[in-house]
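> call design_seq(struct)
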């Protein structure tokens, strides 16, 4: 077993031996029951705070206005916790509710503002001036199992390098060493050793230390500006292809100028796709003029490029109407030439189904993706039923035709899927170990837009909804610490050397919400494509860390040492 050098734990994370953390309540104060509900965030140091449940509410009162203000948490002397809050519309009333774990709430009541807490409850611990309450780490872990753990994954340990050489022999230092992250994942990372490493080791029984620096791939953030729903495909020859929903910043917020093109970008490296790299070529492969006499966008959304059985295909959404932007359906383009940038693209039309009277594409449908498993080709998409956007799956007989009934895999049910609109959309697929993972995006497209997760065993019947399990919390969400908001509609790819799995997602660099009267997120060109590293937990589940987070918080944590002993 390799010896590992443990790095000091970053202050923002739970330290070894730490037994408590801090929990703090808050409301969003948009004058709605959704926003004026109990929200919770936690911290290990009272400085770095992480919002549970994707920044959505966890308890919604039934009494009074159904809206609270100024919530407070108390530890009771006998058992459990008490939550108190004012009524957002009636200053003379207060809300009370008991909880053992901040997951289940009982005994909710509604009392007058003159009520004294000490008259009814024995308080063991009151909140601190900042509103936080110290809680056992065991309580926090139970909360995280239900509402998520939106913490950064950071470098935790590096391999101890000890090299023995004979007198007069030059040392041979490893090109890569083993590192471990705070989620338990280990991998090999390249090291750049100091050029001053000794080449002459004539003396015996001496030891010297050589300094190196772990290589860290840091992609520009944003990676590509004004492109939402980003999709990157790494071809069998190593070339990278990028496409996304195209927005026109020069005509920002003017709907008729948005979502008119499918632009394909190509580079020999992933980093070469980035804006300003000078290492990519791109071409418009499809375009559509504004509809309704030039007044409305045709809504060309979420294009994806796939290579299926020797041919190229682009799936995209657009309206099937010349008068309405909203009659959108998945469509397909085909290119039979080797080079998709120079080849001819043929319009295959809307994706269709062979199944008579099936629900597929009978209403607002979008955000499609394709994946192959065990020789079968599958199609995933989002579709509205009763004005709610669900995720569906079916098998393909050819790239533009479904041959099995549509099966609903996910339906909005949690608060983080219901903000603004009841939405599950933007499915993406990645395989790892013995599982297939399906990410999707939930809620309206403001700063609370986030990513959820379904997964199934690779041996399961993927067309059986019961084969898929859904996590009750978002796995990727906004971060004030890194300035990234409204994360969603992601795809996946791999690094140039195929050693790292990466998530490609869009986000904004401003924190805005649907509650703002002047906010128009659909035609706002502020969604930009970014790249993030995926860390695999010890149980085989993906950990997406936080957006735009490096593997270390301080550059000095990338420094490693090798001990060279001459004997």
């Amino acid at each position: 077993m390799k010896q590992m050098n443990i790095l000091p734990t970053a202050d923002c994370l739970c330290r070894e031996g730490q037994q408590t953390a801090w929990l703090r309540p808050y409301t969003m104060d948009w004058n709605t029951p959704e926003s004026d509900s109990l929200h919770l965030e936690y911290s290990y140091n009272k400085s770095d705070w992480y919002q549970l449940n994707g920044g959505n509410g966890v308890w919604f009162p039934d009494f009074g206005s159904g809206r609270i203000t100024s919530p407070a948490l108390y530890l009771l002397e006998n058992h459990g916790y008490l939550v108190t809050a004012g009524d957002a519309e009636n200053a003379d009333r207060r809300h009370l509710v008991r909880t053992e774990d901040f997951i289940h709430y009982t005994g909710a009541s509604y009392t007058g503002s003159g009520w004294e807490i000490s008259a009814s409850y024995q308080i063991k611990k009151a909140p601190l001036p900042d509103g936080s309450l110290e809680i056992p780490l065991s309580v926090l872990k139970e909360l995280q199992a239900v509402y998520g753990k939106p913490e950064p994954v950071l470098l935790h340990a590096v391999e101890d390098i000890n090299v023995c050489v004979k007198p007069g022999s030059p040392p041979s230092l490893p090109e890569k060493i083993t590192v471990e992250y705070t989620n338990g994942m280990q991998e090999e990372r390249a090291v750049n050793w100091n050029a001053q490493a000794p080449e002459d080791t004539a003396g015996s029984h001496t030891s010297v230390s050589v300094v190196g620096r772990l290589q860290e791939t840091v992609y520009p953030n944003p990676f590509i500006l004004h492109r939402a729903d980003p999709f990157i495909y790494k071809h069998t020859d190593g070339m990278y292809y990028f496409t996304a929903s195209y927005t026109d910043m020069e005509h920002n917020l003017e709907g008729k100028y948005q979502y008119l093109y499918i632009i394909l970008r190509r580079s020999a490296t992933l980093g070469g796709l980035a804006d300003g790299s000078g290492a990519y070529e791109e071409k418009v492969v499809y375009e559509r003029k504004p509809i309704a006499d030039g007044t409305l966008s045709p809504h060309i959304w979420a294009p994806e490029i796939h290579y299926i059985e020797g041919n190229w295909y682009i799936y995209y959404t657009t309206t099937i109407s010349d008068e309405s932007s909203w009659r959108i359906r998945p469509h397909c383009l085909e290119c039979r030439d080797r080079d998709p940038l120079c080849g001819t693209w043929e319009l295959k039309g809307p994706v269709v189904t062979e199944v008579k009277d099936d629900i597929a594409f009978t209403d607002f449908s979008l955000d499609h993706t394709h994946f192959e498993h065990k020789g079968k080709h599958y199609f995933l998409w989002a579709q509205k039923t009763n004005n709610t956007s669900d995720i569906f799956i079916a098998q393909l007989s050819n790239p533009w035709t479904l041959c099995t009934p549509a099966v609903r895999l996910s339906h909005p049910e949690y608060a983080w899927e219901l903000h603004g609109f009841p939405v599950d959309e933007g499915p993406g697929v990645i395989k790892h170990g013995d599982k297939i993972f399906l990410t999707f995006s939930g809620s309206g497209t403001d700063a609370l837009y986030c990513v959820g997760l379904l997964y199934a065993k690779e041996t399961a019947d993927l067309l059986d909804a019961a084969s898929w399990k859904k996590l009750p919390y978002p796995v990727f969400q906004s971060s004030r610490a890194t300035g990234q908001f409204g994360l969603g509609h992601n795809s996946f790819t791999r690094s140039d050397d195929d050693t790292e799995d990466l998530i490609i997602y869009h986000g904004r660099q401003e924190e805005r919400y649907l509650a703002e009267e002047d906010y128009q997120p659909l035609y706002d060109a502020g969604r930009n494509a970014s790249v993030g590293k995926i860390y695999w937990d010890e149980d085989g589940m993906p950990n997406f860390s936080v957006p735009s987070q490096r593997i270390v918080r301080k550059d000095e944590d990338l420094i490693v040492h090798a001990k060279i002993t001459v004997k």
